[in-house]
């Protein structure tokens, strides 16, 4: 019973740490601003406050913003042409409604940011969600005001989670790693009771510091430009990519259900707001380019083999084509990422591409744009 009590106590501490704190949030942001290193503040499921603090620090330096969900987190500043200084503000599971609010806030408050790359995610369903666009205040004061104010998790649920097999296994690995260090007691205090681990170096030489208790030492965080490192995460094999593509094209899959939740009809209120936003940005001397984020090669083709899914997807693309042409906009259609030369090994899973694939997509777009071969509508190069 004593051992069970120790396990429970330690896992409850780790659980609280994984939820994040105002101290960790502010320290992580200040550390990245000072070092230009790699970090984030937990929890990963609520990274808007951290990115809002980072954006506030970066605003004097940037003129371009990337908005969307985690499917565009692999986009780096280096993928933009000279003169475009970008920050990647994409967030986990970010809705189209929230993206509109973020874009309009920046437009109102920070006119020096004139260029926008905006993700339109049909695969995770946010393009179809009903309702109006959100009103978003990205000022640090607004983001910090309610930080940590979520509804408390009942103690009984925390105890059940702390005593679950996965959490006990994680605790075992954590304690084992601490025991192998040169100063176990100092490392124990740091892991369980400090707001941030010690600084270390990523394989590419960048400094890193972990403020979460999960994945320490893995260099798995946000870069100074807001992009995600993907360090140590999976590269799909060709065989696994084919299996995942076939699974996601099944009518029962999450992607398929999202796609046909509104029979492939995007939220027209969202498109209207985005079209008006793009027109205002253009009139102010900037631009807004939209992108259907890359999916693992073969996934879109598998969906078109299923008549019901193919019909929903065709409807989505028809609506977006008409919308883009009416508003003189370009939507980079990277859903069939193989058209841009992306490979299975450049994907973590079905809809999260490594930076190499994003570089292919954007590189091809910039070249064709420079050559004057981009026209309003959906843009996709031939194979």
Protein described:
With 383 residues, the chain is of the alpha/beta class. 44% of the residues lie in helices and 8% in strands. The protein has helices at 2-18, 22-35, 48-58, 96-109, 140-145, 155-162, 165-179, 184-193, 238-248, 254-259, 268-283, 299-304, 307-326, 355-370; strands at residues 64-67, 86-88, 115-119, 200-201, 207-208, 287-292, 330-333, 377-379. The chain has a six-stranded parallel sheet. Strands 4-5 form a two-stranded antiparallel sheet. Helix 2 (22-35) packs parallel to helix 3 and helix 4 (96-109) runs parallel beside helix 11. The chain is globular, with a radius of gyration of 22 Å. It starts with a helix and ends with a strand. The mean pLDDT is 88.
Spatial strand arrangement across the major sheet: 2-1-3-6-7-8
Our estimate of the beta-strand percent is 5-15%
Residue share in helix: 40-55%
Helix-strand string: HHHEEHEHHHHEEHHHEHHEHE
Arithmetic mean of pLDDT? 88
